[in-house]
Design goal:
Blueprint (H helix, E strand, L loop, with lengths): L12 H5 L3 H24 L9 H49 L4 E2 L5 E2 L1 H26 L11 H4 L19 H4 L17 E3 L6 E4 L5 E4 L19 H4 L26 H4 L4 H17 L14 H18 L5 H26 L4 H26 L3 H21 L13 H16 L26 H6 L1 H5 L11 H19 L2
Antiparallel strand pairs: 1-2, 3-4, 4-5
Helix pairs in contact: 2-12, 2-13, 3-4, 3-11, 3-12, 3-13, 3-14, 4-10, 4-11, 4-14, 10-11, 12-13
Length: 509
C-alpha cells in the first residue's frame, strides 16, 4: 500500500503507478481532443458548435453527487476491511494469551497420565502457530488463491492430519477436505507405502533429508540462500533486498513445490498504455475462434474447494473441547476462548462479504456512460463562454471526475495486489510478531518479581522499594518524611491519598 506523497519523497515508478493517471489518461486525451475540435471549428470557421448550457449546472451537480456517493461507498468498504483485520489481530492476540498463560504447563489428564512441561510447551506453541496460520490463510482466501501449499502457510499446518483414518488403509478417498482440495495429478500426495520425506536438523552444518528409499541428501537450512544464489555480504545489501519474512518459519519438506507467499500479477505493456488493449482483445478473440475450429479439447474440472480458515478454526475449537474434557481450563476462560474463535469466524465471513460482493454492473455501466456523455457535450456548452480555454477546462474536468470514478473502482475490493490495496502481508507479519512475543512470556510467579528492590509501588509519596517496605513495615510508615505515626493499612492508604494529590498537582502544571 502506497500512502506517502511521491512528489516530496522521490518520484518512484511504484508510487507513480499508485495514482490513477495510467487508468484515465486515454479517456482524458479523447475528451481533450473533442474539446480542441469544438474550439477550433467554432473560432476558425463560420460554423458555431456552441449549444445552450441550461442543463450544465443541473446535470453536473447530480453527476457530482453520484460520483461522490460511489467513492464514499468504496472507501467505506476499504475502511471496513481494515477494521476486520484489526479484529483478527485482537482475537488472535487474545486466543494466544489464553492458551499460553491460562492453560497449565504441568497437567494430569483424566487417565492420571502426567504431561511434562516440555510436552505442554510444544502443544501450546503448536496451537498458537495455528492461530497465526488463520490470518495467513485468510489472506490467501481473500486473494482467491486456493489451497495450502504456500511458503508462508504450509509450514504452519503441515503437521495436521491428512486422512480420516490414518491407522487404516490410506486411500485418496480418505483424504480430509483441507488437503484434498489442494491436490492434483502432477504432484500426488505420498501414501503410507511412500511416506513424505522427513527433514532432520543439526545444530552445526546443513540439514539432511531422509527420502523414502532410505537415501540421505543434504540441504542448507532455511536461513541460508536456497535458490542457487551465492550469499553476499550483509553489509553490502540493503534490508529491502535481503528481507525474507518466510525465513522465520519452520523448514518443512513438501512433496510439491510451494507457491510464493506473495504472487502479484506482472505489469504488462497494456497496464502502462491501456489504449492498445483493443488490439489484445482482437487477438484473443481470433485465437478463441481458431481453437474452436480445431476442435474442442478436454478441460480438467475444477478442484473441490475447501475453506482453509474455517478448517483451522475447527481445529482450534477441537483443542478447546480437549481442554474442557480434561478440566484444564476454567469455564470463564473457556467462554472467552470460544468467543474469540467465533470472532475469527465472523470476521472471515465479513471479509468474504466485502471481497465477493462487487457493485452491480448495471450501476457501474450506467454511471460511466452518463459521465462520458456529460464530458463529451461539455465543450459544446462552454465554448461560447471560454473560447480556447474550454480545452484545458475539459481536460481538467475529465481528469477530476474520471479520477474519482477510477479510485472508487480500485478500492472497492481492497484485498488484491493493487498498490492502493490493504497491505495484508504486513498485517500477517504483525500478527506473527505479536504471537511470538506472547509465547516468549515465561509466566513467572508474581512473588518472584513484585518484592524486588527495583519496585517502588508507593512512589512518588514514598520512594522506598518493595523489599524495604516488607522488611520493616511499621518502621517504614512511621518515618517522619510523610508524617505518619500509625503503622499498617491506614498508613498505606494515607500514602495512596498523598500520591493522588501529588500526581494531580504535578501533571497539571
Amino acid at each position: 500500500m502506497v500512502a506517502s506523497n511521491p512528489l516530496f519523497q522521490g518520484l518512484s515508478v511504484k508510487k507513480f503507478n499508485a495514482t490513477v493517471i495510467n487508468d484515465v489518461w486515454p479517456e482524458v486525451s479523447f475528451f481533450t481532443l473533442v474539446a480542441a475540435m469544438v474550439a477550433l471549428v467554432t473560432n476558425l470557421t463560420s460554423h458555431s458548435l456552441a449549444v445552450p448550457n441550461s442543463l450544465l449546472t443541473v446535470l453536473g451537480t447530480v453527476l457530482g453527487l453520484v460520483i461522490s456517493f460511489r467513492t464514499s461507498t468504496a472507501y467505506e468498504r476499504y475502511q471496513d476491511g481494515r477494521k476486520m483485520w484489526t479484529n483478527i489481530t485482537i482475537a488472535s492476540r487474545n486466543i494466544a494469551q489464553i492458551i499460553w498463560i491460562h492453560v497449565p504447563f504441568e497437567r494430569v489428564n483424566k487417565d492420571k497420565k502426567k504431561m511434562t512441561t516440555v510436552e505442554s510447551v510444544i502443544e501450546k506453541k503448536t496451537m498458537v502457530n495455528l492461530v497465526q496460520a488463520f490470518s495467513v490463510s485468510v489472506k490467501h482466501f481473500l486473494r482467491q488463491e486456493p489451497g495450502v501449499y504456500y511458503e508462508d502457510l504450509y509450514p504452519l499446518i503441515a503437521f495436521l492430519p491428512r486422512y480420516a483414518n490414518p491407522k487404516g488403509p490410506v486411500t485418496p478417498a480418505d483424504m480430509l477436505p483441507l488437503w484434498h482440495a489442494s491436490e492434483d495429478d502432477d504432484f500426488p500426495l505420498h501414501t503410507a507405502e511412500a511416506p513424505i520425506p522427513q527433514r532432520s536438523f543439526s545444530e552445526s552444518g546443513p540439514s539432511t533429508i531422509h527420502d523414502a528409499d532410505g537415501s540421505v541428501s543434504s540441504e542448507k537450512p532455511r536461513g541460508t540462500m536456497q535458490r542457487g544464489q551465492s550469499e553476499p555480504a550483509p553489509s553490502r545489501l540493503r534490508r529491502a533486498k535481503t528481507f525474507d519474512p518466510e525465513a522465520a518459519l519452520a523448514d518443512v519438506q513438501s512433496h510439491r513445490p510451494l507457491q510464493p507467499a506473495r504472487n502479484p500479477p506482472d505489469a504488462s505493456f497494456f497496464d502502462y498504455f491501456p489504449i492498445f488493449r483493443i488490439f489484445a482483445w482482437m487477438f484473443s478473440t481470433c485465437s478463441r475462434r481458431m481453437r474452436r475450429r480445431s476442435g474442442p479439447k478436454k478441460r480438467k474440472g475444477p478442484l473441490a474447494e475447501s475453506n482453509v480458515p474455517l478448517e483451522i478454526t475447527i481445529y482450534l475449537s477441537a483443542y478447546l473441547n480437549h481442554l474442557l474434557r480434561n478440566g484444564w481450563l476454567q469455564p470463564a476462560l473457556a467462554t472467552g476462548l470460544m468467543n474469540n474463535i467465533a470472532s475469527l469466524q465472523d470476521t472471515m465471513t465479513n471479509l468474504d462479504r466485502i471481497g465477493s460482493t462487487p457493485l452491480p454492473f448495471a450501476y457501474q455501466a450506467h454511471l460511466r456512460m452518463s459521465l462520458w456523455m456529460y464530458l463529451f457535450f461539455l465543450p459544446f456548452q462552454v465554448v461560447s463562454s471560454f473560447g480556447y480555454l474550454c480545452i484545458p477546462g475539459t481536460a481538467f474536468a475529465s481528469f477530476l471526475l474520471l479520477g474519482f470514478l477510477e479510485i472508487g473502482q480500485e478500492i472497492e475490493n481492497p484485498f488484491n495486489y493493487d498498490l492502493n490495496d490493504l497491505d495484508l502481508d504486513a498485517f500477517c507479519l504483525g500478527i506473527q510478531r505479536e504471537l511470538h512475543e506472547v509465547t516468549a512470556h515465561t509466566t513467572p510467579d508474581p512473588t518472584q518479581f513484585v518484592f524486588s528492590t527495583w519496585n517502588q509501588p508507593l512512589a512518588p509519596a514514598d520512594r522506598r522499594s518493595a523489599a524495604e517496605l516488607t522488611a520493616d513495615a511499621e518502621a517504614a510508615y512511621s518515618h517522619a518524611d510523610h508524617g505518619d505515626s500509625e503503622p499498617g493499612m491506614m498508613s498505606i492508604r494515607r500514602v495512596l491519598l498523598k500520591n493522588w494529590r501529588d500526581v494531580d498537582r504535578i501533571t497539571r502544571q
